[in-house]
């Protein structure tokens, strides 16, 4: 009789010991190092399902001013060249995923279109500067919009990222709500085609 009752107790003890080995607490230093070093065992980035739409073609680029972390000013109303305006934030996963692709696009289309990444982070330079310091972006500019003026104008319900292509006259040609593979051949061809048509 004692043996029969002790079997479930033994199984419970074994299960408790097994579960104790699955520590969901803080990572060990080795795990933290692997996670921060971007090794190949990292999970794949999320898909970027954004689609190019032209439903808002002709919308005017708002004459708003922004500054960068150094205090330089950008006046959208004074731009006289095609621009691709990207609204993003450091806390937005698809935004972060597409940033290297935007950097590649800016490199590929240098002289054809200026790529402006305008952060919608409320904390502005406090979070944007470290974000850029940790990455090797060579062509992206750090503009800040902590009041979210552009998100109010172009983002449906504040969803990010939103990227809008404007011609040299400040008229919208196309936009993408959601992440997009901006460095793909298709994306580059679409941007060039829209600029040629505009």
What helical percentage do the residues reach?
Answer: 25-40%
Q: What is the average of the pLDDT values?
A: 81
Low-pLDDT sequence parts: 1-40
Q: Which percent range describes the beta-strand content?
A: 15-25%
Structural class comes to alpha/beta
Arrangement of strands in the largest sheet: 1-8-7-4-5-6
Radius of gyration from the alpha-carbon trace, in angstroms: 24 Å
Describe the structure.
With 198 residues, this protein is an alpha/beta fold. It contains six helices and eight strands, in the order H-H-E-E-E-E-H-E-H-E-H-E-E-H. The strands form two sheets. The protein has a six-stranded mixed β-sheet with strand order 1-8-7-4-5-6. The chain has a two-stranded antiparallel sheet with strand order 2-3. A hairpin with a 5-residue loop joins strand 2 (65-67) and strand 3 (73-75). The longest helix is centred in the first third of the chain and has 19 residues, at 2-20. The chain is globular. The N and C termini lie far apart (88 Å). Residues 1-40 have low confidence and may be disordered.
Topology diagram in text:
Layout: H1 2-20, H2 29-37, E1 52-53, E2 65-67, E3 73-75, E4 83-88, H3 93-108, E5 114-119, H4 125-133, E6 141-144, H5 149-154, E7 162-166, E8 172-177, H6 185-197
Parallel strand pairs: 4-5, 5-6
Antiparallel strand pairs: 1-8, 2-3, 4-7, 7-8
């Amino acid at each position: 009789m004692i043996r029969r009752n002790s079997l479930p107790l033994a199984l419970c003890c074994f299960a408790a010991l097994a579960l104790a080995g699955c520590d969901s607490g803080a990572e060990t230093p080795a795990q933290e190092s692997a996670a921060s070093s971007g090794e190949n065992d990292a999970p794949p980035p999320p898909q970027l399902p954004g689609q190019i739409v032209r439903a808002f073609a002709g919308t005017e680029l708002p004459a708003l001013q922004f500054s960068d972390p150094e205090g330089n000013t950008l006046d959208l109303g004074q731009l006289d060249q095609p621009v691709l305006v990207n609204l993003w934030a450091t806390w937005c996963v698809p935004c972060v995923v597409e940033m290297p692709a935007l950097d590649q696009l800016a490199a590929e289309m240098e002289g054809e279109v200026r790529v402006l990444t305008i952060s919608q982070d409320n904390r502005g330079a406090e979070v944007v500067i470290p974000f850029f310091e940790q990455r090797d972006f060579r062509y992206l500019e750090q503009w800040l919009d902590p009041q979210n003026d552009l998100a109010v104008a172009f983002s449906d319900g504040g969803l990010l990222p939103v990227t809008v292509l404007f011609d040299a006259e400040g008229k919208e040609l196309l936009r993408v709500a959601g992440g997009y593979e901006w460095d793909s051949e298709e994306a580059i061809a679409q941007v060039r085609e829209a600029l040629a048509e505009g």
